[in-house]
């Protein structure tokens, strides 16, 4: 089984910075620490309301990741403004996500079936400039098929429902995990690379990491929160260890 990559989302370092209106803690410094700790990529979500990551952050992150040879994954709503920013900065990857101004965090996957005619041209323009395009979707093979038709190279499966169910000790957790497994299998069969993310913590990471078709996990809020207690580098190394253990155990 191939090595599972870890992308670290540094959005909520910027949330903490913005709470006081100062210039620290720096998300760029967090990205540097994450790269030094062995992550495989940096993720940042520039929201329309700029509640955490700023335009200046994206420019600085693009610069530092290029210098370090580490991919930057630019999470973005499907809007003309965000498309223009992506095309100006040309990150390694762009992950298209749904976005509502009043949501606390991303609540579900992108509806490519309902919004195909709006989303597909954006996918194609980004991909035409060499950006690796991902669509953040629920664990639904029909949505994966629509992403493939739109021209996306990657789908990222929304793991939030499963992770919430595990933490709540819900009996639905096994079925939700099976949905993730099926979606990953079907998306890979379609020729898509599969990533996964949202809500993953130390308790929930291993069953997701054990899904053989998943090539990358993107984790942010939990790692930033855990950094308060043990430091960002240690949190990343612990997550990396659990991911590697899950892969090794699944290969036996």
Report on the architecture of this protein.
The chain has 252 residues and is of the alpha/beta class. 52% of the residues lie in helices and 16% in strands. It contains 11 helices and 8 strands. The chain has helices spanning 11-20, 27-36, 55-68, 80-89, 112-128, 141-150, 160-167, 173-189, 205-209, 221-230, 232-251; strands at 5-9, 41-45, 72-76, 93-96, 132-137, 154-158, 193-197, 214-219. An 8-stranded parallel barrel has the order 1-2-3-4-5-6-7-8, surrounded by 7 helices. Strand 3 (72-76), helix 4 (80-89) and strand 4 (93-96) form a beta-alpha-beta unit. The protein is globular and about 45 Å long. The N and C termini lie close together (10 Å). The mean pLDDT is 95.
Core attributes:
alpha/beta; 11 helices; 8-stranded parallel β-barrel; 252 residues
- Write down the Rg: 17 Å
Give average pLDDT, whole number: 95
Largest sheet: 8 strands, parallel, barrel
The overall strand count is 8
Strand content: 15-25%
Task: Return the structural class.
Answer: alpha/beta
Distance between the termini: 10 Å
SSE string: EHHEHEHEHEHEHHEHEHH
Topology:
Elements: E1 5-9, H1 11-20, H2 27-36, E2 41-45, H3 55-68, E3 72-76, H4 80-89, E4 93-96, H5 112-128, E5 132-137, H6 141-150, E6 154-158, H7 160-167, H8 173-189, E7 193-197, H9 205-209, E8 214-219, H10 221-230, H11 232-251
Parallel strand pairs: 1-2, 1-8, 2-3, 3-4, 4-5, 5-6, 6-7, 7-8
